[in-house]
Write the structure tokens for this entry.
Amino acid sequence: MSLTPIQVAFTAKETIPVISAALDKTLRPKQVILIHTPDPPFRQRAQILRELLQENGIATRLVATPSAFDLPPLLDTLNHLVATYGTQLTLNATTGTHVMSTAALLSAQRHNLRVFYIRPDDRLIWLHPNESTTLEIEDRINLHHFLRARGITIRETEHTHWQAYQPFIRHLYHHRRTLIPQLIQTLRNNNSNNTSAPHLNPQLRWYLPTPEPHKLPHKNYLRGGWLEHYVYYAALQIKQSDPQLQDILGGAKLHSRLHNNHTEVDTLLLYNNRLYVIECKSLISTSNPANKIVNFVYKLDSLMDDLGGQITQGMLLTTLKHLPDRVNQRAHFNQIKLVGQNALVHIDRRLRQWLKPANSQDARNKAAK
């Protein structure tokens, strides 16, 4: 049962706290009121949120306010809602500008309403009345919900030829400490000869599909496709034992309604209502790989912001053995974890350690209003 029948939230670039609070079984309201500015991007975000909430059985009303940065009009908007609905309202102060959050708190204090804030670690705290009790927001959303809330639809959700190569990847993963170094060294040694299956360790060659998948001969797959499948399989293993890993998509092809563009992502994870983006770049046959990896860091940072906002985490996998300090520094600045050759054999441990940023100071510092 919900605490009050109506939640009020502000429409901003960060949309997940609106969805997660509305779908939580303790907080779930009968109606959500979304306050938005007249700016087309925010009006469109509000419309997208309304569609998603209504699909999940929650009535949704849109209310326009003149500005996200002018306190008196924001207070007027909230006062009009209070005059209509009274104490049926609970205010969500998580999203929007700092001025919007201030307006929510002032209105709650003046009219004795409840107002909450969802921290980056997914715990809800009450701003008014000031209570010591907190609430762990349920992990009820999936990647469809998450991306839809940001105006993104999923067009395809499986790595190319995943089924055909799954036995190969399964064997590689379960013998990774010996086979990963051998595989990478073989690929390096045979790069100029267009490495194909006969050059592989017999243990691996045995598990390659026969015949070779159409349009993806083994030599092309071994140049990079195997790395995408490898981390995807590792994530699937973690999901079996960690319920906080809510959803996984591999080889995701996405379309943004807000930007009207298409993009592809190697692997997406949703962990504790937070998005994790993984990209894989083998770079075995690339000249000046250090320069290339810096460019990939910039591209991944932009992709993370588009898909999940500023507290989204990124991981870039590569077969490079040595990564220059400037590459590591740039990746750290952009909240991107670099995983090189030496760490690939410990991919399970690296993934588990990475899936904890909600409790880190960096995540709290980057939480966007």
